[in-house]
Amino acid sequence: MRSLTRSLAFLRKELVSVWRQPRLIATLVIGPFLILFLFGLGYQEMPEAFRTVVVAEQTGSAIGVDAADLDEAFGEGIDLIEVTDDLDSARQSLVSGEIDLVLVAPEDGLDALQRGEQATFSILHSQIDPVITGSIELIARLSVDQINQEVLTGIVEQARTELSQTDGPLADALNEAPDVDPGLLVSPFTVEVSPVTEPPPSQAAYYAPGVLILLVQHLALTFAALSLVRERELGITEMFQVSPLTVREAMTGKYLSFLVLGLVLAAGLAFTMPLLGVEVQGPLWSFALTVSLVIFASLGLGFALSGLAKTDSQAVQYSMVVLLVSIFFTGFVLPLDQLTVPVRWVSYLVPGTFGISGLHDVIFRGQPARPLVIGVLVVYGLVMVALAWLAVRKDVKPASAPTVKVS
Amino acid sequence: MPTDPAIIADELTKRFEEEAGVFDLDLRVESGRIVALIGPSGSGKTTTVRLMTGLLAPDSGTISVLGQDPTRFTSETRARIGYMAQDSVFFPDLTLRENLNFAASLFGVPLRRKRRVNEMVELLDLGVAMDRLLRDVSGGEKRRLSLAAALIHGPELLFLDEPTAGIDPILRQTFWDHFERLSEQGSTLMVTTQYVGEAAFCDLVGVLAGGRVLALDTPDGLRHKAFGGDLFDVVLSSTPSRDDLVALTRAEGVSKVTWLDDHSLRLVVGDEGDPSSTIAGWAGGRDLDVERSEAYLPPFDDVFVELVAAAQNGVEEIDPEGEVALTG
């Protein structure tokens, strides 16, 4: 009973301490809600179309660029501002930021073809972001494919008209299928991508579980680390050491208090997720279990890190390092498969890696988190309990060995 | 029924740097006594308390508190100990009441403790402040909270590190009255203080300087050691001659005579004989009228200064044996 009283004292103390710090609550609890909400509100599935000026001369060639058809060929990724033959003016607009792309069309595709060369579209841009540059290259290829396809379709249509007026097996074959679209003849194959999850997540929805896990992990880790370091800085650990308090009692109280805080935050975030169009497809118990285990493991990591920190600013720095590692190595931004194997082990040092994977199972695949994920989180949490034990013991009951035998 | 000593220390040493720490401390404190450690800052008072509470392990020597090595206290033993640290260390975001309840829980006081908490509030005059956050109260109120936290579980052995620092004289007297009541009820108290006068409230006083015990005795014993005997003041109706004084110094039991003014003398007398009879005999033989003669109890500040000065002047330790047994 006394043991329970001591643990409950920590539970109450931690909760009241947090409650008495409204700015901390605003930063660490309400902040994540707003972040997640704003993320969902502001994220655009499709980036804004590139404002593009086409520089081309009207040649009337059989294989040339018909400015009138360009808009259709470009699709949604490119917003055709104008077609001009003034390259210098277009460049100036690009440099001044009025437009995003300048597409310089070849003068005459037929000339190049007759020389045995491909006619080249040149695209000028002023982007430095590699992701955006990649998008430009992709859109450019798709647009040129579309232009090629339209040119070929025209050629095929013209050839079929001419062939149908001749005799021979090819003309007979063409006459037997007069309604086949020339475009189909040019592109007989297409592709259809179908996810097994229904409905497939939007990009904003896809990132939501990662945001939830990282926020919960960061909160738990920071609270745990700061809690011990602050007690150490205050000097109150001296009272712990003199009192009958045991490491187990202190840890039980601290784990319970921050688990409660973490779960309240996670529940709040979970209720925000439908705003992003995220519906939990799988069992809720698995969702709750995964989040709880991430909090449990993160608390242990926080307590363990506090053993290394001498000041609360150091504890915050450690916590920020873990957050940075989490952003890049947990599969939140980049798929784990894109990391080389030695580096991937860094991912496994962060509980968020397993949490994100588990929530993807539950939320999008409609199944409980894989047993391997749950198992690893449990083992991770228990290992952290052992490390946390060492950190808490340092404050509560330091191993002070006398150098002489005492009576 | 005789009880085991609450504290036994034998050649206890904790060395931090070349000249800092506690060196060769011998101490034996019987249960139910109040022991004061007095000395200037850095004299080793807090280190001694920390050694006895298990917060520090000794480099050498032995120590037993409530029959156990403090570095290996069991939870049951710790529950019998109260500790007030030199600095008031509690949670700034909690009220004084919440902090006190936290301390009570740590020491295993059952949750139905309102009455006990109120007793502490009343004793330490904390009523108004109890529901204020710790960060909003005065230093004195924080000290009182620290004391309340040390007392809340009714420990049988209390280590109080400068409990009266920053406390007004009236409340300080209240504290000492309570300490005496606790002692009468059987609690043992070890108190460190820089208020040398508080030594008078104690059963045993250790004077520390430079990590060493300069003297360890009862308050009366310390006075005796500081001045080489008891002090006796004599007021005469006329001024004695030099021959009169020489004769007085040769009287039985008188070891030293000093002038206070033309008509007044202060004598250092030993245990032998009755000073009043000696003075009466001396005055009668020399036609001197004694207006008043009485024992003089010097304030402990003077006692302390004498002891420290003697130590700094290279005088041998006043209590070279370094151990005083105080039995009930």
For this entry, give a set of tags.
A: mainly alpha; abc type-2 transporter like fold; four-stranded mixed beta sheet; 4 strands; 5% strand; disordered C terminus; B: 328 residues; Rossmann fold; Alpha-Beta Plaits; four-stranded antiparallel beta sheet; 10 helices
Provide a quick synopsis of the model.
The complex is a heterodimer of chains A (407) and B (328). With 407 residues, chain A is mainly alpha-helical. Chain A has 16 helices and 4 strands.
**Class from helix and strand fractions of chain B:** alpha/beta
User: How many domains in all of chain A?
Assistant: 2
Number-wise, the strands of chain B total 13
Q: What is the level-2 CATH architecture name of the largest domain in chain B?
A: 3-Layer(aba) Sandwich
List low-pLDDT spans of chain B.
Answer: 315-328
Largest sheet of chain B: 6 strands, mixed
For this structure, what is the CATH homologous superfamily of the largest domain in chain B?
Answer: P-loop containing nucleotide triphosphate hydrolases
Helix content of chain A: 55-70%
Based on secondary structure, the structural category of chain A is mainly alpha
- Shape, per Cα inertia axes of chain A: elongated
Largest interface: A-B, 32 and 43 residues
**Total number of distinct structural domains of chain B:** 2
Order of helices and strands of chain B: EEEHEHEHHHEHEEEHEHEEHEH
The assembly state of the depicted protein chains is: heterodimer
Q: Segments of chain A where pLDDT lies below 50 for 5+ residues?
A: 401-407
Percent strand of chain A equals 5-15%
Write out the strand line-up for the largest beta sheet of chain A, numbering strands in chain order.
2-1-3-4
Set out the fold topology:
The complex is a heterodimer of chains A (407) and B (328).
Chain A lengths: L1 H18 L2 H21 L7 E6 L11 H8 L3 E7 L2 H9 L5 E4 L4 H6 L7 E4 L4 H35 L4 H8 L5 H5 L16 H32 L2 H6 L4 H26 L11 H23 L5 H18 L11 H7 L3 H14 L6 H26 L11
Parallel strand pairs in A: 1-2, 1-3
Antiparallel strand pairs in A: 3-4
Chain B lengths: L6 E9 L5 E9 L4 E5 L6 H8 L7 E6 L9 H4 L2 E4 L11 H11 L7 H10 L15 H13 L5 E5 L7 H16 L3 E6 L10 E6 L2 E6 L1 H9 L2 E7 L5 H8 L4 E6 L4 E6 L5 H10 L5 E7 L3 H13 L16
Parallel strand pairs in B: 3-7, 3-8, 5-6, 6-7
Antiparallel strand pairs in B: 1-2, 1-4, 8-9, 10-12, 10-13, 11-12
